[in-house]
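During the no-cost extension, the postdoctoral fellow (Dr. R.K.) reprocessed legacy sequence entries with the updated structure-token encoder. One reprocessed record is reproduced below for audit purposes.
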Amino acid sequence: MSKLEQLIKELCPDGVEFKKIGDISTITRGRVISKDYIRDNAGEYPVYSSQTENNGELGKISSFDFDGEYISWTTDGANAGTVFYRTGKFSVTNVCGLIKITDKDVLTKFIYYALAVEASKHVNAGMGNPKLMSNVMTNVKIPVPPLEVQGEIVRILDNFTELTAELTAELTAELTARKKQYEYYRDELLNFNLEIPKVKLKDIKTQDLYRGSGIKREDLTEEGISCVRYGEIYTTYGVWFDKCVSKTSLDKIQNPKYFENGDLLFVITGESVEDIAKTTAYVGNERCLAGGDIVVMKHNQNAKYLSYALSTIDAIKQKTKGKIKSKVVHSNVSSIEEVEIPLPPIEIQNRIVEVLDNFDSICSDLNIGLPAEIETRQKQYEYYRDLLLTFDGNLSSLDRQTDRQTDRQTDRQTGDN
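Re-encoded structure tokens follow.
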């Protein structure tokens, strides 16, 4: 029997009492803090908003509204119900609720863990804007065992959280390293000596580059002609693709523009300077529609080779030359035509593509496998956290799981030394 099970057996023989958040705390909201205000009042104290990236931190200012141990939660939007444990000096925006525990028999960290399970169940998703407002949060009921039990649960979950974070960081670092390794060898393979001529894209096109025609999200259909919208090139397609993920009805498109096997597609609108004019090669057999903000190039080269060559660091530098970081970044046909790449004979292009396709396949397996492992770790953590906070089930399994993770972490660190 684990220590936690012993404590529950001794201190909670008749079950665990449930309490409303409003009965054990005071609840407040933050204030309006704009990005301009943060810029004009830069300092050392964090401002937390409704976002979940970067631990919710929007920026830092020279003053603070709160000092101590709190729980914040997102009140509005897609992340409504997300909770954070806060300590020290900080401020929160108006889309954050703030909980200050006032009951001396309740640990703030325990309530944080409990709300991580419970809060999302009380989010109201009506009217298209999810909300968890203060009047709802105050009535949320959570189990509150004796202090000794709370402390042991916090200890276990803190330990398990730390182990999970370390494993996730290791896997993320491995994924990043593999991507960099792939990019290095790709660029080295395509870094020819002076005997290989470099050509501008305008010199190898077989007809004028042309832009696609706008395809709105509402124009997409279950059946119809295959098509590509420009955002999909950023999110879905890699160096090459052979099947489209979207379809539309031809009668919805006023001035249809097509692409075919071997054509290159460039995106000329985006949110990032680094990604502008991202390129993909179509190697499928259908005749498909090109959406707006896509430029199509026809040629007589190996399409995959051209797309690989256009994804190197040197090509990206050329595509981003003169572009300014702003809300929306644009390129155009004339800029794309001026991009210069090495162009060996078609036989060498074919051999290079064979090598890079094999290497890309290995990296793709890693890109699938490692994120899946990260997701598994997160789900595993959530499962044991939820198990622990229901006070129903084999609680000792969590102790054993934490011990196993600790052993694996120790073995890994020992192996690295």
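Confidence is low (pLDDT under 50) at residues 393-399, 406-410, 412-417. Residues 275 and 411 are 40 Å apart (CA to CA). The remaining legacy entries will be reprocessed before the final report is submitted.
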